[in-house]
């Protein structure tokens, strides 16, 4: 009986001593996952997603199509600064129109397109509404929705009435 207790005690001691390395490995994995998410988000920051473009409207020349779309729909003079990597449609082909993803090589071009699209408001092409926005990951979208919901609920709890006040409650 004492021999069994000794063996059990030795196994428990060994298990506890191995628990510390497992915790450090789990912590390292969590840090690395955070870095991966950050790098994915950082690489998408300079992308613009264009929604509402009819399927196959670009023909075989997506570069030229995006250039025409920016110059005609947004009334922006396309200069050599508007250099872009290979624009393409995202996702699999289906009955719905797919988004057009454009990655600009220069921040100024990216910024100008988003600013003008925001200022212009409603943009239509061939009778269909076309929207442009920053390409964000689902993780960031979910976090911002969650933050907005928390903000709204905190204002409701304080009985402030509306969300956007110019003065505190």
Tally of strands: 5
Low-confidence stretches: none
Structural class, please?
Answer: alpha+beta
CATH homologous superfamily title of the domain at 46-134? L1 transposable element, RRM domain
Sheet with most strands: strand arrangement: 2-3-1-5-4
Molecular shape: elongated
Cα radius of gyration in angstroms: 26 Å
Q: Biggest sheet, in brief? A: 5 strands, antiparallel
Quick check: average pLDDT?
78
Ends: how far apart?
71 Å
Query: Can you identify the CATH class of the domain at 46-134?
Result: Alpha Beta
Give, in order, the helices and strands: HEHEEHEEH
Percent helix, as a range, is: 40-55%
Strand content: 5-15%
CATH topology of the domain at 46-134: Alpha-Beta Plaits
Per CATH, the architecture of the domain at 46-134 is 2-Layer Sandwich
How many helices does DSSP assign?
4
Describe the structure.
The protein is α+β, with helices and mostly antiparallel strands and 169 residues long. The chain has a domain of 89 residues: L1 transposable element, RRM domain (Alpha-Beta Plaits, 2-Layer Sandwich), CATH 3.30.70. The protein is built from 4 helices and 5 strands, in the order H-E-H-E-E-H-E-E-H. It has a 5-stranded antiparallel β-sheet with strand order 2-3-1-5-4. A hairpin with a 2-residue loop joins strand 4 and strand 5. The longest helix is centred in the first third of the chain and has 43 residues. The chain is elongated, with a radius of gyration of 26 Å. The protein starts with a helix and ends in a 12-residue tail after the last helix.
């Amino acid at each position: 009986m004492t021999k069994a207790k000794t063996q059990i005690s030795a196994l428990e001691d060994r298990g506890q001593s191995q628990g510390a390395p497992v915790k450090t490995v789990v912590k390292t994995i969590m840090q690395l996952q955070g870095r991966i998410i950050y790098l994915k988000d950082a690489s998408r920051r300079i992308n613009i997603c264009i929604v509402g473009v009819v399927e196959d409207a670009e023909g075989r020349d997506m570069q030229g199509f995006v250039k025409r779309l920016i110059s005609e729909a947004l009334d922006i003079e396309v200069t050599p600064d508007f250099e872009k990597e290979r624009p393409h449609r995202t996702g699999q082909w289906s009955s719905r129109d797919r988004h057009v993803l454009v990655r600009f090589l220069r921040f100024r071009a990216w910024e100008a397109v988003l600013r003008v699209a925001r200022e212009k408001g409603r943009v239509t092409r061939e009778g269909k509404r076309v929207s442009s926005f920053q390409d964000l990951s689902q993780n960031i979208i979910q976090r911002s929705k969650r933050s907005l919901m928390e903000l709204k609920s905190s204002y409701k709890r304080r009985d402030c009435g509306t969300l956007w006040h110019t003065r505190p409650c």
